[in-house]
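Posting for a labmate who doesn't have an account.
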Amino acid sequence: MPPIVVMGVSASGKTAIGKPLARRLGCPFIDGDVLHPQANIDKMKAGHPLDDADRAPWLDRVAQWLADHEEGGVIACSALKRGYRDRLRRAAPDTLFVMLDPPLEVLRQRDAGRKGHFMPASLLDSQLATLERPDPDEHAITIVNAGSVEEAVEAIVEALSRRFG
């Protein structure tokens, strides 16, 4: 199984779904947020969205993790733009992206209920504005995850089974 990036905007469920997905697949998991430089965390805590220059060192760390786990691993990473995903694929060409795509009202509800996360709910709109949905040639899997974590994990495993047998 190639490395998997569970992607999406804030509160889409990347970590909540990525952890049990990795357990189900029997591979390592990491929340890409832990790879952010402290300056990025401080900027987001202050309510300021990251720009491409801010994301560059973080994406390099994510890319290195993917390259180190080409035999399999799951990472939660927003991967909001095509250019970011292309950058990650240059480090690990077989990387598969699983986009979590809950309805907007679900995102807002989840975001409002988050406790202890450094990214304030006010940044959701900037992430939605930045998001470039995967193009067909990226061969990403999109999951509309409005239900439980277990349902989302099962949908991803079924999609992986169809793709990889």
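Reply:
Got it, the structure tokens are right above this. Helices lie at 14-25, 38-45, 52-68, 82-91, 104-113, 124-130, 149-164.
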